[in-house]
Amino acid sequence: MPRLLFAILLPLALAACQRETPAPEPAAVAPSAAEPVVEAAVETTLAQAGVQPGPGAIDVKAFAGKFSGALPCADCPGIDETLELGADGAFTLTDVYRERPQGTFTLQGTWSTEADGKRIRLDPGSKTEADRLYAIADNDTLAPLDADGQAIAGTPDLRLTRGK
C-alpha cells in the first residue's frame, strides 16, 4: 500500500514543484502602409503653469489672480465675492453676505477653462457643491453664469474685476 500511495503522490508533488512558464506575449503588429496611424490626443484645460490648451485659449498662468465684486442678494444688502485663481489650478471662492452673522462662506477646489478660453469652471471636488461657471469678459473681468453656462437673466450687470 505505501508503494501505491508513493506512486500516486510522487507525480503530483513533482508537478506542483515545477515552475510555470509564462505565456509568450503577443507580437506587436506594425500598421500597414494602407492603414492610417491614429493617435489620440487628450487636451487638458486644467490650469497648470505654462499650459495653453489650444488655439484661442488663455494662458492660465498669466490669467491667474484675484477677482472681486459685489453681487445681489435676495434677502440681504448684497454679497461681496472674492475669487482667487491659482496658477497651479487651485481656487478659493469667498462669499461674504452683508449684515449676516456667520455670513462668510468659503469654497475651494480646482479651476479649468472651457469654450476655447471664454469660460471658467470652478470644480469644488465635492458631491454636495455644484460646479460654478464664469464668463471671461476680458483679461480683467469675469461674469457669473448659470448652471447651463448662460448669462443670469433678470439681474444687473454682474462682474468680478481683477484686483490691482
From TrEMBL:
The keyword Signal applies. It comes from the Bacteria. Keywords: Signal. The keyword Signal applies. Pfam families: NlpE (PF04170). Residues 1-15 form the signal peptide. InterPro entries: Cu-R_lipoprotein_NlpE. This is Copper resistance protein NlpE. It comes from Cognatiluteimonas weifangensis.
